[in-house]
Amino acid sequence: MDMLANFALPFMDLDLFFLVGVGTFAGIYVGAIPGLSVTMATALLLSVTYSWDMLDALALIMGVYVGGVYGGSRSAMLLNIPGAPASVATTFDGYPMSKLGEAGLGIGLATTMSFVGGIVGVFFLVFFTPLIADFALKFDHRDYFLLALMGLLLIGTLSRGGFRQSIFIAFLGVIIGLVGLDPITASPRFTFGTLALSQGINIVVAILGLFGFSEVLLQLSELRLASPVAQVGRTVPERKLILRLLPLSLRTSVIGVFIGALPGVGGEIAALLGYDHAKRTVKNPSRPFGEGAYEGVAAPESANNAAIGGALIPMLTLGIPGDAVTAVIIGSLVIHGLNPGPTLMINTPELFYVVAGSVLLANFFLLVFGFSGIQVFKKMVSVPKAYLLPAVTLLTIIGAYAINNNVTDIFWAFGFGIIGFVLRLNGIAVAPMVLGIILGPLLDESLRATLIADNSQLDVFLLGFVTSPISLVLSFVILMALASNIGVFKLFARART
Length: 497
Hints:
Blueprint: H1 2-12, H2 14-32, H3 38-49, H4 54-78, H5 88-99, H6 103-127, H7 129-137, H8 141-153, H9 155-158, H10 163-177, E1 180-181, E2 188-189, H11 203-222, H12 239-260, H13 267-281, H14 295-318, H15 324-335, H16 342-347, H17 349-372, H18 374-378, H19 385-404, H20 407-425, H21 431-453, H22 458-467, H23 469-486, H24 488-496
């Protein structure tokens, strides 16, 4: 009975109810502004809420967390600028929907499927926390390496270009992701003796350039500045469409929960895996993927919002952050005198259910604010390019500067914008480079940690891929993905005929 009362407390207590609502509203609009990340907003809240009651502070933070992850889809679909790395996959079909005059429907789909993903995340958070936490703990460094490698092999399905071309672009992204100080030895890598590169290249700066500024240059190259970008169309998805997409949304939500529960992985990989799952399993999409398929919006938006519930599982049960935001939340718990870890559930079990109830309430607020706020964002797509493109450029500059308050990041964004423009002008997708930048550090750290654990013995290293059940399954999936991308199955089929 106490469990149910604590779970319902955010719905019953007016202060908590109000704080969750305010946090969700603020998170949506913060997440929609490129460069203003959910992590940044959550970190700023620490200085505001450190003197508050613990439950009040968590209610506000949970609202910002849920709203911020969803909010990144707005700019991803309307401007082709992901509001956060977790929204990169949404650009693949969300922006083409806007160009086809379905910006409103795209936002409506993202809102609905984000709600579905959030509810699934809460369901697993409440009922399967011990099971998922135990499963996540079984992943070692080798498994994280395989997971990152599998993510890179998704490039063949995420990109319109050839597999070899995509792998090459992703390899460049991996190199960019490794720029900075070595996390193990602290020695500089790819810095060319420049102090400005010692901190590495921020992924958000790269995204702003590759997607945002490159889009401005691409639009300018068309020299049709007076025409509007797109028509908006309907906003509320039809019931038939929601029911048709619901099974896919539920499947990718489960993927999002389990990926989110892996420490340090995050919603961006969950969204990419969700998109890849949709592309591999949906036989008759509404449109070809990459050209405005509804499934291409539903899958990543379900996955990255479900990853919220997953990321909270290791944080609340083990004191291990599932992503950057939960790392900040752990800091908030420490500030309030709590000790994140296994004892947290024993000493303050009510905290777990209040957090879960706050996330559930935030998802309902997301549904309300998501649809009611569409009218504001709809106006963005009807603005003529002559006015819209300078605004996008300004957003790119402000977003790049706001990350570290560093002018150098603005030049990096412009540099990546030129790279993205050249690639897109030649029909080469920029998504593989972004994926490489995201997965590069994880690939590097997990591989080196595995080699250190195996004493750099090649036989021990290779044997580990088949002796661990998780590694064996991941290795099999990677081999199948590689065989599929290089056409091995087609060769066998031709040989048999």
